[in-house]
Amino acid sequence: MKPWKVVGWIIPPHQNGSFVASMEKVLDIYKRPYNKDFPVICMDESPKQLIKETRTRIPMKQGFEAREDFEYERCGVANIFLASEPLKGKRHVEVTERKQKLTGQSLSNELRMSGI
């Protein structure tokens, strides 16, 4: 057993059949065959803190593991946006300095230019 390992999962609320039915409808979308007129596009966005190490790490040597200090310097935040069309094998990744509100038109233009 490895108690430090945890798998994230959405656990449906007790006795909530409508939640489970809605989740099944979403999952059924991924089972559809490829159709160029109605592509299945998956999108995700994630902010990431940028950090820099402030102390030199001590390398591993015989009988001792490598050592790293927990101290770090904050260097801002980056926002990662990903759009993929899994059945076509295409993806588009964009990294920005700040979270941006993408309009439907600008998103559509970005994806069209990237081939999705």
Written account of the structure:
- This protein is extended.
- 1% of the residues are buried.
- The chain is built from 2 helices and 3 strands.
- The protein starts with 16 loop residues before the first helix and ends with a helix.
- The chain has a domain of 81 residues.
- It has a 3-stranded antiparallel beta sheet with strand order 1-2-3, with no helix packed on it.
- It is an alpha+beta fold.
Per-chain topology:
Layout: H1 17-29, E1 42-53, E2 72-85, E3 90-96, H2 104-114
Antiparallel strand pairs: 1-2, 2-3
Can you describe this structure in just a few lines?
The protein is of the alpha+beta class and 116 residues long. It is 21% helix and 28% strand. The chain has a domain at 34-114.
- In whole angstroms, how far apart are the ends? 42 Å
Multimeric state: single chain
Structural class: alpha+beta
Give the strand content.
25-35%
Rg for CA atoms:
21 Å
Order of helices and strands: HEEEH
| Strands, count | 3
Average pLDDT figure: 83
Q: What best-fitting shape do the alpha-carbon axes yield?
A: extended
Helix content: 10-25%
Largest sheet: 3 strands, antiparallel
Order of neighbouring strands in the sheet with most strands: 1-2-3
- Poorly predicted sequence stretches spanning 5 or more consecutive residues: none
Count of helical stretches? 2
